[in-house]
Amino acid sequence: MSSVVVLAIAIAVVLLVLYWSGRYGGRGRAGTSLHRGPGAHTTAKGRPKKGYSDRAQAEAQANALSTRDGVAMNAYQCAQCRQWHIGHRSR
Description:
Largest sheet: 2 strands, antiparallel
């Protein structure tokens, strides 16, 4: 009976770690998020990326965010979904 309880606790811990790493992994925590990668459709905070249907809309929003936040942003076309997303300009 006790081995079943230990096994259940171990499974619960593994599932909690997987959930936590997928939800809260991001910048400064390299390798913790299992859902992120080159084709990920989530932000560094785990939220879904917003897609824009055309480049003009995405660039207008990127310029607005750059002005508001003082951080250089750019628009790029996603190779996975072919929509336009906004990201931080690479240095």
